[in-house]
């Protein structure tokens, strides 16, 4: 492997030092000779012989997923600069983070709850950004959390873990990752979704404050059984984080708190605010079940954290567990004034649309309080002098989206799900507004930079859900004289079918818009979603020339 030092990748990235390796590949320090900067380059390890169909399919899917992961836009998400095909494999070029991993830090001992909460707050923000573009991480663990200078927290391996885990398992029966951080629904063969990432976050938070992983045992079989059926010991050193950790480790994904509640608690603990009062909701442990996904499992990647068996020999047994709290009834009576930086980041995670293995979940604003909703959008607090409600014409409410330079109409009564502004100084800057419900979502995005020509943009627009079973109909068209493209995609996940309709618009002033509706296929909601797309498209106005 050291013979690769000095190798030139993609005609510009010179490998200088191997800085890490694992089941999913090798990470190199490299020098970008084109722009003169240091980068990290990940050399993937794929199953099978390079001439095998399985190997080639894995390489193609990894390439598409890595390109999609490059759209994950958050300060705590590692920046992916490039994807280079070298020797038939997609090499991932990322920003180089100078620091150490959370796993390395925990080898020296557990963290205080406030420090753990600060790290967790950054990680959940990065996960929200990934989930909102259809990326499920699948490998959230301390080794993949890097702590950089100036307090920066970075979650690595977006998208790459998703494909690597699927393909290596299918080909060789070897699962890549740390077993004790994998959610029970994955163990039971139900696939990974956004909720499984949140479960892994719960294990990470537990390990950070307690100093050991709650489900790790001495054998693969006992670890698997613990994840499927054992409740973790009540955290003893988590302080105000204990209720959140307990809820995140619910066996049933539907019982885990949503992103808004997670962010609110982590922010409060990190800043030393009064944490919302919660009430108890007991839950039943999940029964062990067959695990076809792990039938051929061969080994666990070693973690620097001790097993619970070892930890229990060094410390006294835990005290009786208090009632399990719930995060459903926050009490905002004693919340102090928040600093703008964390408040804005909390707003970004308050309304997420998560693609979880093919199931769309809408996350509402917390509490239903109009003041909280307004703060989540960055608006002023509503008052008697607030602007009037948007007008409704023929059953369609007309929303002037000034940040997007657009006018978007939705059926009267359709709720706002989220508004998001990635910021002009970030990669792929964009602004998005989403309306809809848990099943059908209407999304309008204005992007500042897209691939050109139009067919390249159309190819990238389907990356988040592209796989061997996806079928896309692409039709060149115009929108009020502007160049446009209609995309209609059907795809399948776990025998469940879904449909995405998209309209891409490029104005003469180089303003780029995407109108998109996501919906289940073959249900009454598909007809509703198609009607929503067509009605919104017919009433849409975009760009300064049309919307003013």
TrEMBL record:
<feature type="region of interest" description="Disordered">
    <location>
        <begin position="369"/>
        <end position="396"/>
    </location>
</feature>
<feature type="transmembrane region" description="Helical">
    <location>
        <begin position="342"/>
        <end position="363"/>
    </location>
</feature>
<feature type="domain" description="Protein kinase">
    <location>
        <begin position="13"/>
        <end position="269"/>
    </location>
</feature>
<dbReference type="GO" id="GO:0005524">
    <property type="term" value="F:ATP binding"/>
</dbReference>
<keyword id="KW-0067">ATP-binding</keyword>
<feature type="binding site">
    <location>
        <position position="42"/>
    </location>
    <ligand>
        <name>ATP</name>
    </ligand>
</feature>
<dbReference type="InterPro" id="IPR017441">
    <property type="entry name" value="Protein_kinase_ATP_BS"/>
</dbReference>
<protein>
    <recommendedName>
        <fullName>non-specific serine/threonine protein kinase</fullName>
        <ecNumber>2.7.11.1</ecNumber>
    </recommendedName>
</protein>
<feature type="region of interest" description="Disordered">
    <location>
        <begin position="277"/>
        <end position="335"/>
    </location>
</feature>
<keyword id="KW-0547">Nucleotide-binding</keyword>
<dbReference type="Pfam" id="PF00069">
    <property type="entry name" value="Pkinase"/>
</dbReference>
<dbReference type="GO" id="GO:0004674">
    <property type="term" value="F:protein serine/threonine kinase activity"/>
</dbReference>
<keyword id="KW-0812">Transmembrane</keyword>
<keyword id="KW-0723">Serine/threonine-protein kinase</keyword>
<keyword id="KW-0472">Membrane</keyword>
<keyword id="KW-0418">Kinase</keyword>
<dbReference type="InterPro" id="IPR011009">
    <property type="entry name" value="Kinase-like_dom_sf"/>
</dbReference>
<keyword id="KW-1133">Transmembrane helix</keyword>
<dbReference type="InterPro" id="IPR008271">
    <property type="entry name" value="Ser/Thr_kinase_AS"/>
</dbReference>
<keyword id="KW-0808">Transferase</keyword>
<dbReference type="InterPro" id="IPR000719">
    <property type="entry name" value="Prot_kinase_dom"/>
</dbReference>
């Amino acid at each position: 492997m050291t013979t690769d030092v000095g190798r030139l990748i993609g005609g510009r990235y010179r490998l200088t030092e191997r800085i890490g390796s694992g089941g999913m590949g090798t990470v190199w320090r490299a020098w970008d000779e084109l722009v003169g900067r240091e980068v990290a380059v990940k050399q993937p390890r794929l199953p099978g012989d390079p001439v095998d169909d399985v190997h080639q399919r894995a390489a193609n899917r990894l390439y598409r997923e890595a390109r999609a992961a490059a759209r994950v836009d958050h300060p705590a998400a590692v920046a992916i600069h490039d994807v280079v095909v070298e020797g038939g494999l997609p090499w991932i070029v990322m920003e180089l983070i100078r620091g150490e991993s959370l796993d390395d830090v925990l080898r020296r001992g557990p963290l205080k709850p406030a420090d753990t909460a600060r790290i967790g707050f950054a990680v959940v923000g990065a996960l929200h950004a990934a989930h909102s573009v259809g990326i499920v991480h699948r490998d959230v663990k301390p080794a993949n959390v890097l702590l950089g200078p100036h307090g920066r927290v970075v979650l690595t391996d977006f998208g790459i873990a998703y494909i690597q885990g699927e393909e290596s398992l299918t080909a060789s029966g070897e699962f890549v990752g740390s077993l004790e951080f994998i959610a029970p629904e994955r163990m039971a063969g139900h696939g990974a979704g956004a909720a499984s990432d949140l479960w892994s976050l719960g294990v990470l938070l537990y390990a950070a404050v307690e100093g050991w992983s709650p489900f790790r045992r001495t054998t693969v079989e006992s670890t698997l059984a613990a994840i499927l059926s054992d409740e973790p010991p009540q955290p003893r050193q988590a302080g105000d984080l204990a209720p959140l950790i307990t809820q995140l480790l619910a066996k049933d994904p539907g019982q885990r708190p949503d992103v808004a509640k997670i962010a609110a608690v982590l922010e409060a603990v990190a800043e030393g605010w009064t944490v919302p009062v919660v009430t108890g909701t007991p839950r039943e442990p999940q029964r062990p079940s067959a695990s076809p996904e792990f039938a051929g499992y061969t080994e666990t990647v070693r973690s620097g954290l001790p097993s619970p068996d070892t930890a229990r020999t060094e410390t006294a047994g835990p005290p009786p567990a208090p009632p399990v709290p719930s995060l459903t009834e926050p009490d905002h009576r004693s919340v102090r004034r928040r600093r703008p930086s964390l408040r804005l980041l909390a707003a970004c995670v308050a309304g997420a649309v998560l693609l979880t293995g093919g199931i769309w979940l809408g996350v509402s604003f917390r509490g239903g309080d109009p003041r909280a909703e307004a703060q989540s959008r960055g608006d002023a607090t509503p008052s008697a002098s607030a602007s009037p409600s948007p007008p409704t014409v023929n059953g369609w409410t007309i929303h002037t989206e000034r940040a997007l330079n657009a006018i978007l109409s939705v059926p009267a009564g359709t709720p706002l799900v989220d508004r998001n502004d990635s910021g002009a100084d970030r990669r792929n800057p964009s602004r998005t507004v989403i309306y809809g419900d848990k099943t059908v979502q209407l999304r309008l995005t204005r992007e500042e930079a897209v691939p050109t020509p139009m067919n390249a943009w159309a190819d990238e627009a389907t990356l988040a859900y592209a796989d061997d079973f996806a079928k896309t109909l692409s039709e060149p068209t115009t929108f009020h004289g502007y160049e446009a493209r209609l995309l209609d995609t059907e795809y399948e996940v776990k025998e469940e079918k879904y449909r995405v309709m998209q309209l891409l618009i490029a104005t003469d002033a180089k303003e780029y818009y995407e109108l998109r509706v996501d919906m289940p296929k073959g249900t009454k909601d598909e007809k509703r979603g198609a009607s929503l797309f067509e009605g919104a498209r017919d009433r849409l106005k975009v760009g300064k020339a049309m919307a003013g």
